[in-house]
Structure formats: structure tokens, C-alpha cells
Amino acid sequence: MDSIKIETIETKSKVFLLGNHNKPGFLKAAARYIVLAGIGFVYVYPLIYMISKSFLSPEDLADPSVIWIPTGIYFDNFKKAFSVLDFWNCLKNSIIVSVVAAILQTISTSFVSYGLARFKLPLKKVFIVLIVATFFIPVEITTVPRYVLFYRYGFINTLLPSYLPALFVQGLNSAIFILVFFMFFKSYPLAFDEAASIDGAGRFKIFYKIALPMSKPAILVSILFSTVWYWNETAQSQMYYGNKFPSLMHRLSEFSSRFASAMKETGGGSTTPTQAIILAATMLTMLPMILFYLATQKQFISSIEYSGITGE
Fold it and tell me: CATH 1.10.3720.10 residue ranges in the chain?
């Protein structure tokens, strides 16, 4: 009996530690959580560091004993950063640029994808290959020709350099969204379109009533990721209309120089922003996207599951 009990205890211990085909063991689960916690820490650490440092007062910054936790909550860093960023005006510009461009890009890419998926076109495969190829062309190659084109038509210092490419399927990473919509439009049976056509529906009505509802995940992918990518884009927008419609990202890129100018005008002290003020400005710039993500978290996750796009 004792030997049977010992064997039973050993079996249970083995199952507990190593698991079986029904459930993972303790060691496997612990290793999995340790790896996930380590990966999570790598991503969360910069945010924790930014929040901690942005609340440090000048006295805390000068005190080597204060590393993570400030001696008191100091909001002046955010007040100065808020003023220098011209937060509300730049937030409005950022929303106008990113959201409108994302909507235009979604409309144009869905139209093109539906045509490629549902119509018999000569050289269709060639067009698809060319669309994919545009994704691999460096942006720097097309920057000068685009600037010359927009300059000749008088579009500089307007929002058209962002809106027109998005409307004509040349927006940020449009090739990805064309392929995503193409995949969804090819996934549902052609018999749906044929039945609607027999009932008298035109091509646009079929697209609006059948194709688009079938591709709701693709629409979410396009809207969400386009908004984020247009929000973070600074190089070309700075060149085309940055001074006329400055965004939060533009203001952040030139924060130090604007802070120095503001301090000279007001006589408010040092013209060099401290690390805490710079991190506070960074936090204010990130805040709208963080709130946007929290509000659309389920949509973000479902879009990743459907399309495999993770975003950068």
C-alpha cells in the first residue's frame, strides 16, 4: 500500500509540474508567464519612466536621491508643455488631417479592391503586382516629384497633399489596405452579387449593400491604422503644410526651439527645457492616441486577428 501511495504522489507531482495532454504543468505555465511579463516590461518601462520623470520638479531633478518617485506632484511641467505645444489648436489640426485622410483612404482603397476582386480585367494580376510593389518603394524616392507636382498646382500650405493621395489610392500604406479589402471581397460567394443583380440592383448598390457589410473588419483595419499612421507622419506633412497646419507631432519635433522663444518672450527663466518638461510634452502628444486606443481596443484586437496587421 505504501508503494502504491508513493507512486500516486509521484504521478500527481509529475502531472502538477510537467502537466499532461489536457493542461500545461506548473513549470510550463510559470515559464510562459515569466516570458510574457518580461516582454510586457520592455514595452511598459518607457511609459512608466516617462510618467515618473514628467512629474519631477526642478528640485527633484537636481536631487540624485530622487530617481523614480517625486517628492510631490508637480504640474508646472505640463502647464509649460501645454502652452508651448499650443495643444488645442494643434490637436484640432492633427484630428482634421489624420481622420479625414483615413476616411478618404478607406473609401478609395475599398473601391479599387472591389473592382479587382469582382470584375474581369485585362492584366489584373499585373496590376496587383504593381500595387504590392509600390509598398516597397522608399518614400524618399517619390518625395521630390510629389513636392514639385504640388508646388506647380499651388497646393503647398494646404491639406490637399494629404487628402489627394489618400483619395486617389496613393496614401500612407494604401497597398496594404487594398490587399486587405481584396481578401475580404474575394472571400464571400459571387452568387450574392449575381442574386442582387437579378433583383435589379446596380453595381454601386451591390457594393454598398453587400460588399461593404461583408468587409466590416477590413473597414476597421483601414480606419484605425490609417488614423494612427497619419497621426505619426511628420516628414512630408512638415514639408507640405507644417507651418500652416501644425500638428502635435510637428510641435513636439521643434519643442526645444519654441520653448526657448516662449521663455525669452515671457522672461520665465531658463530657455532650455528640462528633461521633465520634454517628457511632459511627449506625454501630452501621446495622450490622444492612448485614449483613442482605449476607446477602440476591441476593434484594434479584432482587426489584428482578421488581417494580421500589427502596426508600427
Answer: 80-307
Q: So what CATH class is 80-307?
A: mainly alpha
pLDDT in tens, 245-295: 888 888 888 888 888 888 777 766 667 788 888 889 999 998 888 888 888
pTM of the model as a whole = 0.80
Instruction: Give start and end residues of each alpha helix (H) in the chain.
Output: 2-18, 26-54, 58-62, 76-85, 87-118, 124-136, 139-152, 160-167, 174-187, 190-198, 203-206, 212-214, 216-232, 235-241, 248-253, 255-266, 275-295, 297-307
> Which residues, 6+ apart, have CB-to-CB distance to 246 below 8 Å?
86, 89, 90, 93
Please check whether residue 173 is in contact with residue 147, taking contact to mean a CB–CB distance below 8 angstroms.
no
Shortest CA distance to 147 belongs to which of 231, 240, 223? 240
CA distances from residue 171 to 158, 176, 230, 264 in whole angstroms, order as listed:
16, 10, 9, 40
